[in-house]
Protein 1
Amino acid sequence: MASPISSAVHRPPADEHRPTPSSSLTTRTRSSFPAQLAPETIRQILQYALAPDADYFDDPTAGHLELEGHVRPSAYYPGRVCRQWHNVAVSTPSLWTHIAAFVDTPHTVESLASSPLQTHLRLSFPLPISVYLRRKVKIPSGLDLEERDSVTALLHAVKDHFARVEALVIEANVASSLPNALDLLGDGSEISFQPLSKLRKLMLRCNADDSILQPLPSALPPQPLRSLPLRQSLTTLYLDGRNLLEMLGSSRAGRNGLSVDSKNVFSCMPMLEAIGVNNLTCSVDGFSEELIYYFFFGILPSFQRLSTLLLESLDLEPPHYPALSSRNPQEVMLGAVPTPLVSLSLTRLIIKHTKRESIGFVLRCIARPHTIVLDGCFLSSPTPSSSSSPSALLESVLRCSRLILANIASDFDRSLPGLIAQWDGECLELIRCMCLDDDFWTKLVQLSREGKPGPEDGRGRTSEQTQERVQENHHEPFLGHLRSLKVIDCPNVHPDSLIVFLIQLRRARSTPGGGSNSALGVNSNAALDELVVAGNRAHKLEMGAQMKWAKLVSRTVEWSPLNVR
């Protein structure tokens, strides 16, 4: 999105010997170009100039790796070019359908009555609208005591247009500032608002949960069942942990026959395609293992169209309760699925800011998705682990065709190479991983010579164990299915280390039992089908190195920036 144009324009000192045009001629020249444009052309220009910023408006469940930091400023209003452009803008409702406001700016009902928010609501009528209540400063330096009042005032300002809202995104610093999801999804009677009858996306996100943890009872108390109207249009649901647990508790009440209506609140959303959960930890008010199992084994399998599951800031191993992974789901809730894997055909499983123990639990619950994204996760710890094999929790369950590792800052125990070596997919993407240095690629090369590591043998083996492992892995070659490697914005990756890894990968495949290269096109000796290395700080690649890459990659090599002349 175009950035705002500065009001202060630098003008060079005037040359007294240079003739200057008259003011009337200058005015006619400046106004002639926009005056000659047809209204439809102006409308297309405005549609392009005022298009929403993808980094700002895209929902997190779309697989987009959001940029950290502050929200970009609003775009410059092109309607100020001239009166004709302004008239076209105010007569085009589609230009005003994306409405954004900041919850960390103090708002009251009175101040919003004459705000730009009302202008957008009026000019966008009668089209569907998308409302984004976001934070200007993502993470404040202290408590924002006025945040909750601002959210309430903003929702009150939009309440008369709820019937037109198709996307509602609310981002807060703490969970207590977010509205109740059951109230928003209800018929409007609880909050005296119009029902969100056309809602397609509902996202309630917070930076942290501020629950006051209550003692966990031996048995969950019954919760009242909330009946919701059928939401055929709802395709994306992203909730904070507190709202999710409340919905699970209400659904479980109906499931256990505590009400005449046996339906749960999730059965009113049959068209859901993406579900996201944020800040689901043992500290959230209402947390229990029973509800967690009910979510994974009772709720998720009921969505026939579900393709994306996003889990952010997850902690499913509370220190004072039994480990979740050691429990049998059939013992927790009656009528659970007979297998520990959820029968889902997920296109994307996205996990953000989560430690490896919780990641391992999730991967044991979900059957093999097509794409797994681990973004900003904590795959290792700076303190010694009690486990002899820190990566073993993931090596045996990391099964997908496409693996994306993003924003992995450190690899303290050097378990990441073993994790990748055990993975059996085809496409690997490494994005903004600072830990990808020479030692990382050296360790991968070492693993290719020793044979594919297994989850039971850890990182260290004797020479006899290595030979036995190599013989066992004839049917399981080292990265035998890998066809595409993308390394994006990883400044510590050096071409020399990467090319040594590719040479060793090709050598491992050419040995007996090392797999077939028939799928690699005309170059049967190639290590990969596609290699992409890009980034602002990527090492430059000389012409001599280009010839080496051509022998190792069968079809596509993209290296940016290139130093080829």
Protein 2
Amino acid sequence: MSLIGTILRKYDAVDWLIKQKARTLLIFIAIGITVPIIDGTVTSLMLGRIAFTVYSDLLLILMAGISVVLLIRGKYTAASSAAILAIIVGLFFSRFLSAGKYAQDITYEVAQNAIILMFVIVFTALVAEKTAQLIITIALSMLIEFFYIAMVRSGIPFSQQGAFDAIALSKLLFIGVTGLVSALLFLNSRRAIAVAHSEGRISRENEQKFRMIFDSVNDAIFVHDVETGAILDVNRKMCEMYRCSREEALAGSISAFSANTPPYTAVEAARWLTRAREEGPQLFDWRARDRLGNLFWVEVNARCAEIGDAKRFLVVVRDISQRKTAEDRIASYTAELERSNRDLEDFAYIASHDLQEPLRKVRTFGDLLVKKTADTVGDEGRNYVTRMQQSTTRMQQLIIDLLAYSRVGTRGGIFEHVRLDDALDDALETLDLEIENAHARIERQPLPMIDADRSQMRQLFQNIIANAVKFRKPGLPPVIRITAVETDDGFVSISIEDNGIGFDETYRDKIFVIFQRLHGRDDFGGTGVGLAICKKIVERHGGTISAESTAGIGSRFTIRLPRVHTNA
């Protein structure tokens, strides 16, 4: 108060106040608000009071209209609430203060101005947030008037006419402020209504787009309440899949669309949904039931998702009846194949034992026949006996090879860490006599360690090296080179190369087929099973085998085996 008092003592109070208000009035004039000129008489003051009362009532009615529009548009916001409160309190105080016996009291004039202005500012700030700073700035400028009125009430001497002039100017200023506020309110209310209308239209369009996409999905979709599990929405595919209407689906429950035989019950479904909420999306197979009681298989993808402003269970269901039928058929075929393999294995065992026994007797009797009839049987008879014994030997070898072939997949050993050098040593030891007789030279590099069946690795090396020794050029000692490299894809590539007679690459795939021979039996012995066994061994280990050759130059076999056998 001391600072204000010093200012008022130094300058003429009324002139100083008018100058301060004039600055504010220039703002209103600049933005297009016309302020009437009042001469400061009592008559003008009364007319100004009447004009203010009518104008403030019109302002409050305008605020009420805006609030009603916002409420109708569904925009029941803090702005609407503040406006309604401003209308009730503002009208009450305006009427009470204007009609009371103290209406002429300057203090009540200030109170009336302050109350109505306060609610106008609140309303404007909430509806038109960007104009809040402007309105508050104007309101602060009116604090000077309130200080002035307070000094008048405290007894500082002013002329009566000066007081009336100050009050009249205050009224004019307040009417100007409310006029500006009204204009801002009108413009912003139109903008708010337009925005609300646009938002409503966009919301309806989005809802239509969502429903169109929702119903066009080729999987059934359920939307469940997170707390109760109730079905809140379904799409058209769900109604088709479960043969029900949307109303029936919404009135139903998880139990109504499940097989209800363990584990396909509502209790188990609730567990899946709980896991979806706590652990993330869940994918599982489910036995479903339609409204007609038909059971079918579905694949369920359940997750907890934000839909709108709430959490919901989103359950996508796909009919997998055909896939299940195919899986059952494959399982049946697999079981039948396993049974056939067991039968084949049993047959091979019987063949190896029961069929070889008569062959051994034939060979034995042939030997006895040769010994006892050596002097009486001529060359032709001995030739017949020799050919009989050779056929018996081939038959025995064929049975042995066939048994070995049948047991590659059924009687294989366990997979373990195997040094391929050890398996190669075993094979060379088995073939040492053939290698020595052919004067063959083996050139080898160190081989790596892999996960494999050691006995089958020995068989693999033995069969390929035996072929290299057997199919050699006449008069030329065979040279066999064995190398290996480890590749970046986790495999070992083994190369076995020879300088033998080779073969036409037209038959590069045929040589791995059982009983297929490229040369006559009289030229080269064998049963045509050896390379077929090699291919089966490599495939059991998850690898590949291939051959390259040039007739008259030699052949190269390439074997690719994984270093680590994941199914061991």
